[in-house]
Amino acid sequence: FDHPYIPRDLVLPDYVPCFLPQSTIISVYGIISLLVVSFMWILSGFIRRVPKIDRVLMCWWIFTGLTHIILEGYFAFTPQFYKEKTPHYLAEVWKEYSKGDSRYAGRDPAIVAIEAITAAVEGPACLLSVYAIATRRPYRHILQIAISLGQLYGTAVYFATAVLEGDNFAASEFHYYAYYVFANAWWVLIPSVIVVRSWRKISAAFHTLEQKKAK
């Protein structure tokens, strides 16, 4: 089988290897992400009464929202990306990432379902969070909790299904820890922090409201 993925008997007819080197694929993603985050940080600085922590959250939400919509959306709705015969950057990303989890190249149904829902629902909701924070909408904390719980659930299913299926989908130990573990850990850590923060904000607001009613 002429592909770099594990298991070696994974059937990928007409597979076309990556055109771009790993360093280029990762560098482009890093640079574009940095530009997006920097743009949002600068833009949010012109909005009145937005604390720095909310500006940081706006940067996170636009980054993760565009990642969901563009990157994961491409995967979900381009089933034969591994056959791409030209250096299409998004196809290159998933060819490379599949070295850390070949279920992507193999179109595992659970993975496709998770990514499709994430791209179609959570992606736009993340961008709505940017707007809600910027305009101080009262639903901003509920929205952030809902999206973060969705991200945590999707990540939990992602890891759980891998374990149940044998957790043997990485081409090397490096790809396992760099792509499968490290790259996904951010969608466990950051959403968890956001849930706790927004939970406290909502609880404090209700506590204040109840105290006012009691007077």
Strand and helix layout:
Blueprint: H1 22-44, H2 52-77, H3 89-97, H4 109-134, H5 140-164, H6 173-214
Helix pairs in contact: 1-2, 2-4, 4-5, 5-6
Describe it for me?
The chain has 215 residues and is mostly helical. The chain has one domain (22-214). The protein is built from six helices and no strands. It has helices spanning 22-44, 52-77, 89-97, 109-134, 140-164, 173-214. α4 (109-134) packs antiparallel against α5 (140-164). It is elongated, with a radius of gyration of 20 Å.
Name the features:
6 helices; single chain; elongated; mainly alpha; 215 residues; 70% helix
Q: What share of residues is helical? A: over 70%
Number of helices: 6
Count of discrete structural domains: 1
| Tally of strands | 0
Mean of all residue-level pLDDT scores: 96
Brief write-up:
The protein has 215 residues and is an all-alpha fold. The chain is built from six helices and no strands.
